[in-house]
Amino acid sequence: MTDALCAADGTITLVYTNSLNGNIDYCHCAANPNGGLVKRATEIKSIRKSRPGVVLVETGDFLPADNDPGLAAAILEGYRHIG
Q1: Domain for residue 50, yes or no?
Q2: How far apart are CA 27 and CA 22, in angstroms?
Q3: DSSP code per residue over 39-64
Q4: Is the whole-model pTM more than 0.85?
Q5: Are the CB atoms for 73 and 82 separated by under 8 Å?
Q6: Is position 29 within any domain?
Q7: What angle do CA 60, 57, 83 make, to 5 degrees?
Q8: What span, in angstroms and rounded, lies between the C-alpha atoms of 37 and 39?
Q9: 24 in Cβ contact with 73 (< 8 Å)
Q10: Kind and range of the H or E run holding 15
Q11: What letter would DSSP give residue 79?
Q12: What is the domain count for the chain?
């Protein structure tokens, strides 16, 4: 790990996410509704404010299953802004 990624004490905070499934807003699921990319970005921003040295790892299923290129591009742009 490079010094640029580590907190002053040499630690990192690993944040991992998965299964966004192309949802920018909440998923509209009847059972167990989850937040979308907007909520995820807000949570990650909050973690970064309180903990230096955050490394974000997206583990998959973040693009829409229906192969919508416009939505996929929006999701990728959102992740680019999240960092």
Answers
A1: yes
A2: 9
A3: HHHHHHHHHHHHSSSEEEEE-S--S-
A4: no
A5: no
A6: yes
A7: 110
A8: 5
A9: no
A10: strand 13-17
A11: H
A12: 1
